[in-house]
């Protein structure tokens, strides 16, 4: 196993473990390595300081370090998958819902009470206002909104 310091095109730095350098090259070329912060697959190796070590007897701590590194790499991959899924959800909402901005609570109530045409909307509201809408029976859902990758 080998660890590389990587950096995405936005400058986010992170580490990733690979079986070898060839596997790194293959996975990056296939877009399988993504930044855990922004989700982009435009990544490259960052400058790294070499690790110099003397001859040491292999111990259980070395095996634990490899296991921990594999676990961290798996968690990084899961975080990237989650970011992609949240990005896809945002795209779907923006394409299929009407944006009403800060007027969301009022517009949601109008739709709920039949005072406005029934349609899918999205916008901003406070935590307190969202709770009040829920208590009134107005169907709302809070969605984690990630910033755009190219913004």
Describe this structure in words.
This protein has a three-stranded antiparallel β-sheet. A two-stranded parallel ribbon has the order 4-5. 11% of the residues are buried. The two termini are 35 Å apart. Among the domains are: 1-47; 93-136, no CATH class. By secondary structure, it is of the alpha+beta class. Helix content is 43%, strand content 15%.
Provide tags for this entry.
two-stranded parallel sheet; elongated; 4 helices; 151 residues; 5 strands; single chain; three-stranded antiparallel β-sheet
Helix-strand blueprint:
Elements: E1 2-8, E2 13-18, H1 21-29, E3 43-45, H2 60-96, E4 98-101, H3 104-112, E5 121-123, H4 127-136
Parallel strand pairs: 4-5
Antiparallel strand pairs: 1-2, 1-3
Q: What is the total tally of β strands?
A: 5
Approximately how much helix is present in the residues? Answer: 40-55%
Give the N-to-C terminal Cα separation.
Answer: 35 Å
Strand content: 15-25%
Order of strands, main sheet, comes to 2-1-3
Counting helices, strands and paired strands, the structural category is: alpha+beta
Indicate the radius of gyration in whole angstroms.
23 Å
Element order: H for helix, E for strand: EEHEHEHEH
Give the biggest beta sheet. Answer: 3 strands, antiparallel
- How many helical elements? 4
Weakly predicted, low-confidence segments: none
**Shape, principal axes of CA atoms:** elongated
Mean pLDDT: 83
């Amino acid at each position: 196993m080998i660890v590389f310091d990587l950096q995405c095109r936005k400058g986010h730095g992170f580490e990733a473990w690979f079986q070898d350098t060839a596997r790194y090259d293959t996975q990056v070329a296939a877009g399988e390595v993504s930044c855990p912060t922004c989700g982009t697959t435009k990544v490259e190796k960052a400058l790294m300081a070499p690790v110099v070590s003397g001859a040491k007897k292999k111990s259980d701590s070395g095996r634990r370090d490899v296991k921990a590194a594999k676990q961290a790499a798996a968690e990084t991959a899961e975080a990237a998958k989650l970011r992609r899924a949240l990005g896809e959800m945002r795209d779907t909402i923006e394409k299929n819902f009407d944006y009403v901005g800060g007027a969301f609570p009022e517009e949601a109530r109008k739709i709920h009470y039949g005072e406005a045409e029934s349609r899918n909307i999205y916008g901003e509201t406070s935590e307190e206002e969202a709770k009040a809408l829920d208590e009134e029976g107005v169907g709302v859902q809070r969605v984690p909104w990630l910033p755009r990758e190219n913004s």
